[in-house]
Write a structure and sequence with these properties.
The complex is a heterodimer of chains A (about 550) and B (about 290). By secondary structure, chain A is α+β, with helices and mostly antiparallel strands. Chain A has 3 domains: about 40-55 and about 200-280 and about 505-540, D-Maltodextrin-Binding Protein, domain 2, CATH 3.40.190.10; about 75-185, Dipeptide-binding Protein, domain 1 (Alpha-Beta Complex); about 290-505, Dipeptide-binding Protein, Domain 3 (Dipeptide-binding Protein, domain 3), CATH 3.10.105.10. Chain A contains 16 helices and 21 strands. Chain A has helices at about 1-25, 65-70, 120-135, 140, 165-175, 180-185, 245-255, 300-310, 315-320, 350-360, 385-400, 415-425, 440-445, 465-475, 480-495, 530-535; strands spanning about 45-50, 75-80, 85, 90-95, 100-105, 145-150, 155-160, 205-210, 215-220, 235-240, 260, 275-280, 290, 325, 375-385, 405-410, 430, 500-505, 505-510, 515, 540. In chain A, helix 13 (about 440-445) packs antiparallel against helix 14. Chain A is globular, with a radius of gyration of 25 Å. Chain B is elongated, with a radius of gyration of 22 Å. The chains are: A alpha+beta (about 550), B mainly alpha (about 290). At the A-B interface, helix 1, helix 7, helix 9, helix 11 and strand 16 of A face helix 10, helix 11 and helix 12 of B. Chain A: It comes from Micromonospora chalcea.
């Protein structure tokens, strides 16, 4: 008996050691024989991190899902290289009837892959379905819509219950347009999986998938936004690499031609000596932040929030975590929205001693003399898989200790974090907003008591803020609107509902010896893989 | 089981004199001496970590530096010293390893001995042990660690809880042999209670097996801890070898900063190897069939 037990132990140890050492080695695998042999150069292979979990473009999509689905289903507007809205399916849009009617004029040359033209009825059907089944985040943006009309094949009119300045931009950018003749027969669209026989009108449409491995997209032969009426690349293939190290190696080895995910700042050196791989830098449409839960008795105190804001060394964070490649912010409005950003605001200075003094003045005591204020102990929740944010929390915890505030690092596994965020089980939320396409939508979804976007992480219920936001939302005069947004920016900053950390730049890596012509848009949601960008790509001869 | 084992095992209650020669014989084996040395060095690192290196904190200017005189094990993407991280990680690993294995030993011994002596309980205990052994422990540990908030304490409890069945099975099998021995019958005839027999007569006879189990279970616990930390389920406030590996993986530096993964991996390797060798050799040395007793 002794022998077998021992044998088992030895095996276990051997396996443990192998696994431990394997951690650093198991990068290179993957299938080296690829399907690229047949039509070699015009297949663009893109690395993605995870499988597509939802093929229905009308529902809420994860970042990786939207990379693929946005190439299939057109949007009315897109966000261009300069973070401005540009025409996509819609040629133009305007407001009529004192801002109570939004009119989109569509192009007439978009075609579904089954040959039918994309018409105003498709847009009307998409919007009405979203409203009927309350699908995704677009449903909240359609709140004011009383009816949708399609008087002719290229005109869509949204009748609103009240003027809402950013309506057309928000809906135009976010809403996917789906083929009515395919989706209508499917019945209940909240249950429609749309996982086979795809019909799309983007530059590429899914053709076949192998779960866990690849998503093959074929070219749409009619895509008017591509230089030659169709994309130069005949096929786009998304390949799944859950680990970023593996994906970078795959790019270096030529198994893929570009990475959908940005290259971590710390890893940019990987491509330093590789003259085939080029990095392209784009800005962000969101920002990283610390948001304070107002349901916490102490965090509801403005002094505590301001003191915490003074205990975060954002400059050091930007230089260490982002290697200097980021921008500081003061209020909640990102400098990307230059017309709305209140430039008079200054970020809270990093001053732990000052923060300590402020807290003492506010009546907080350190009775047991352990260097920490007795009541001020908070957990900082974050998503363990976000490298930058976990580093930020680590540094924040250290600097807050100098201000006498004890923080507990609660960076947990992603799904646990999402559940906690949803249930409000955190004191301080450290996370990153992905994409805000306009400041009004951002303020509505982050500060309204009714929490229409589900991301009021402050759990703020303030009549004053509600009034300010609703007042701004109904303002049609452009200058007055800007002034009101700037004022809200100032109020949030003074209240220190959140401490904005940084607006980061993203770097995307691609094999420049094989493909060129990408037109990157800001944010890691859009990046180099927007429908428009993929349609412009050409193989290098 | 063969007869010599029985006669040999009948002796332990009065082992005073042979103990020293056994220990020195054990330590005189080169492999054992080396293993024990490694374990001692690790223990010293763990206990005196604050004297050896500052707790890794803040951000430094030397980002992703390879090993050098100033940074023996190089630096990570925040410019923190990997050597300091490994030293402080030794603390967490040793604490979790020992505490979890003690927990497992206490649970396992109690259940194993109870099963060996109280026959009606045996059937139940054996089934439970078998079920626990058949469970896929890693996924269960991952699930549990994801649900509770991860800290050194919760990790210890989770790892310890999943490690007891192996100990229970070992102790039970040895306990079955002992409890069938004449001196146990003798004690019973003299009127000793079941509690007294188990704690005073059987327990001393399985102590050496417990020593082996502590070492082997601890080495497994260290691997479990590193694994869970690598998966992001470790204590985010405590440095651990698994967390250093996780940092390297998450920041995408595995391919360019080999030192960030090599040194913590070596630390895991050495600790686990040393504990295992020390444990198995201990088992071999006290085995009469090996040493001709």
């Amino acid at each position: 008996m002794n022998k077998t037990v021992k044998g088992r132990w030895r095996l276990a140890v051997a396996l443990g050691v192998a696994a431990t050492l394997g951690v650093s080695g198991c990068g290179l695998n993957e299938e080296t024989s690829s399907s690229s042999g047949s039509s070699s150069d015009s297949v663009l292979r893109i690395g993605t991190t995870t499988d597509v979990s939802n093929f229905n473009p009308l529902q809420s999509l994860s970042k990786t899902d939207s990379w693929i689905l946005n190439a299939m289903y057109p949007h009315l507007l897109r966000i261009d290289e300069n973070a401005k809205k540009s025409p996509e399916l819609a040629k133009e849009y305007r407001y009529e009837d004192d801002g109570k009617t939004a009119v989109f004029v569509l192009r007439d040359d978009f075609k579904w892959t089954d040959g039918k033209p994309v018409v105003a009825e498709d847009v009307k059907f998409s919007a009405e379905s979203i409203m009927k089944y309350k699908l995704g985040n677009v449903a909240a943006k359609l709140t004011w819509v009383e009816s949708v009309e399609a008087p002719d094949a290229t005109t869509v009119k949204f009748k609103l219950s009240q003027p809402y300045a950013p309506f057309a931009e928000g809906v135009g950018f976010w809403m996917s347009v789906v083929p009515k003749h395919v989706f209508e027969p499917a019945g209940d669209l909240s249950k429609f999986a749309n996982d086979s026989n795809w019909v799309g009108a983007g530059p590429f449409v899914l053709d076949s998938i192998t779960k866990g491995q690849r998503y093959v997209m074929k070219r749409n032969e009619h895509y008017p936004l591509a230089p030659g009426g169709k994309a130069a690349v005949s096929q786009v293939e998304y390949r799944v690499y859950p680990d970023v190290n593996t994906m970078m190696l795959a790019l270096r080895n030529g198994d893929i031609d570009m990475m959908g995910t940005p290259v971590p700042v710390s890893a940019a050196k990987t491509f330093e000596n590789d003259d085939k791989i080029k990095l392209k830098k784009v800005g962000a449409l969101g920002f990283a932040h610390l948001t304070y839960n107002m349901k916490n008795k102490y965090l509801a105190d403005q002094d505590v929030r301001q003191a915490l804001s003074m205990a975060v060394d954002t400059k050091a964070i930007i230089s260490a975590v982002l290697q200097g490649d980021g921008q500081q912010m003061a209020g909640p409005i990102s400098p990307i929205f230059s017309e709305y950003d209140n430039t008079e605001l200054q970020p809270y200075p990093f001053d732990p001693e000052g923060a300590k003094a402020k807290l003492s003045a506010a009546g907080y005591k350190d009775a047991n003399n352990d260097g920490f204020f007795d009541e001020l102990k908070f957990g900082v929740a974050c998503d363990q898989s976000n490298a930058n944010i976990t580093r930020v929390v680590q540094l924040f915890r250290e600097s807050a200790a100098k201000a006498g505030v004890k923080l507990e690092n609660e960076c947990v596994e992603r799904n646990t974090f999402l559940t906690r965020t949803k249930n409000g089980e955190y004191d301080i939320d450290a996370s990153q907003w992905g994409v805000f396409d306009n400041p009004m939508d951002q303020l509505r979804s982050t500060y309204l008591s009714s929490n229409p976007g589900g991301i009021n992480y402050n759990l703020l219920e303030s009549a004053e803020m509600d009034a300010l936001i609703n007042d701004a939302a109904g303002t049609t005069d452009v200058e007055a609107f800007k002034t009101k947004i700037k004022n809200i920016d100032k109020v949030v900053h003074e209240q220190a509902y959140l401490t904005p950390l940084y607006v980061e730049n993203f770097q995307f890596a691609y094999n420049a010896s094989k493909f060129t012509g990408f037109v990157p848009s800001p944010s890691d949601l859009l990046g180099m893989v927007t429908a428009y960008s993929l349609a412009q790509v050409t193989p290098v001869k | 089981m063969s007869a010599p084992v029985l006669t040999e095992q009948a002796l332990p209650p009065a082992p005073a004199a042979p103990r020293r020669s056994f220990l020195s014989g054990y330590l005189r084996q080169p492999v054992v001496a080396l293993s024990v040395l490694v374990l001692l060095v690790m223990a010293v690192l763990a206990v005196f970590a604050p004297l050896i290196a500052d707790e890794p904190a803040g951000a430094g200017a030397d980002v992703l530096q390879p090993p050098s005189g100033a940074h023996w094990f190089g630096t990570d993407d925040l410019g923190q010293d990997i050597f300091a991280q490994v030293v402080w990680g030794t603390r967490t690993s040793m604490v979790i390893g020992l505490a979890a294995s003690l927990l497992a030993i206490v649970l396992g011994t109690a259940i194993g001995l109870a099963a060996a002596y109280f026959r009606p309980f045996d059937a139940v205990a054996t089934v439970i042990t078998d079920v626990m052994l058949a469970l896929p422990t890693l996924p269960l540990m991952i699930m549990l660690a994801a649900v509770v908030s991860p800290s050194v304490t919760t990790l210890t409890l989770i790892i310890g809880f999943f490690a007891w069945p192996e100990v229970a099975r070992l102790i039970r099998s040895q306990g079955l042999v002992i409890s069938a021995m004449p001196y146990i019958d003798g004690a019973r005839v003299l009127g000793a209670t079941g509690w007294r027999i188990v704690t005073r007569e059987i327990l001393p006879a399985v102590v050496s097996l417990m020593v082996v189990s502590v070492l082997l279970t601890a080495s497994r616990a260290v691997i479990s801890e590193a694994g869970l930390s690598f998966l992001g389920l470790g204590d985010p406030d405590a440095w651990s070898w698994g967390r250093i590996l996780l940092n390297a993986q998450r920041s995408g530096t595995i391919a360019i900063a080999w030192w960030q993964t090599l040194f913590p991996s070596l630390a895991i390797l050495f600790l686990v190897l040393a504990a295992t060798l020390a444990g198995t050799r201990f088992n071999d040395t006290r085995d009469p069939r090996r040493n001709g007793g």
